[in-house]
Amino acid sequence: DIVMTQSPDSLAVSLGERATINCKSSQNILNSANNKNYLAWYQQRPGQPPKLLIYWASTRETGVPDRFSGRGSGTDFSLTISSLQAEDVALYYCQQYYTTPSFGPGTKVDIK
Amino acid sequence: EVQLVESGGGLVRPGGSLRLSCSASGFTFSSFSMHWVRQAPGKGLEYVSAITHDGGTTYYADSVKGRFTISRDNSRNTLYLQMSSLRPEDTAMYYCVKDVYGGNWYYFEYWGQGTLVTVSS
């Protein structure tokens, strides 16, 4: 099984500043046959179900603001919020789907 | 508009059983794999079970294998999770989740609001 880790556990960023969350997989999740990284990011606001933000490591879901961006390949990935807004306060999870899906433990983003 | 509406949660004693249902609308249910993901109070997401579009392949996390059964009725656009021999550690919000594809497991395009299962004496 592929184990996902995230860092930091939580971070507090001022409004308008950049927030970056890291995600690491215990195995390579880049499929060399199609050159796709099998990684997604989800946002879970308080009291809400998770919402898909990014898939294939860097493709933004329809309707997701362009301040959210994903990057990385192989085993190391990141999600960046370029200019934090109040509505971005949430838990963020990475998930691999290269094998049976598994989630990272989550990163809590708050406003400083 | 895609809608996933879970039902069937509640309070059950250890060793008891529950059947969760997820009523789907707004998409061709029979074309997509479906999943159950749970979240214990204050904890992260745990992948529980999955079923391909035609019910031909299923998956269970080790933590529920032999106790939970996933199924679907494509004629009723409904996903099920039969849970038995419930334990306190099964206490969680259970989310019904739509996959982006119908065969193997990929990423999760839509999530229901969840149904709360509490296992306690």
Largest beta sheet of chain A, briefly? Answer: 7 strands, mixed
Query: Secondary-structure element order of chain A, as H and E?
Result: EEEEEEEEEEEEE
Helix content of chain A: under 10%
Uncertain spans of chain B: none
- Multimeric organization: heterodimer
Greatest interface: A-B, 18 and 19 residues
Mass-distribution shape of chain A = globular
- Helix tally of chain A equals 0
How many individual β-strands of chain A?
13
Helical residue percent of chain B? under 10%
SSE topology string of chain B: EEEEEEEEEEE
Mean pLDDT value of chain B: 97
**Class computed from helices, strands and strand pairing of chain A:** mainly beta
Q: How many distinct beta strands of chain B?
A: 11
Q: Name the structural class of chain B.
A: mainly beta
Outline the structure in words.
The complex is a heterodimer of chains A (112) and B (121). Chain A has no helices and 13 strands. Chain A has strands spanning 4-7, 10-13, 19-25, 30-31, 36-37, 39-44, 51-55, 59-60, 68-73, 76-81, 90-96, 102-103, 107-111. In chain A, β7 (51-55) and β8 form a beta hairpin. With 121 residues, chain B is an all-beta fold. Chain B has strands spanning 3-7, 10-12, 18-25, 34-39, 45-51, 58-60, 68-73, 78-83, 92-99, 108-111, 115-119. In chain B, strands 2, 4, 5, 6, 9, 10 and 11 form a seven-stranded mixed beta sheet that branches. A four-stranded antiparallel beta sheet of chain B has the order 1-3-8-7, with no helix packed on it. Chain B is globular, with a radius of gyration of 13 Å. The termini of chain B are far apart. The interface between A and B is medium-sized, with 18 and 19 residues.
Which key terms come to mind for this protein?
heterodimer; A: mainly beta; seven-stranded mixed sheet; four-stranded antiparallel sheet; globular; B: mainly beta
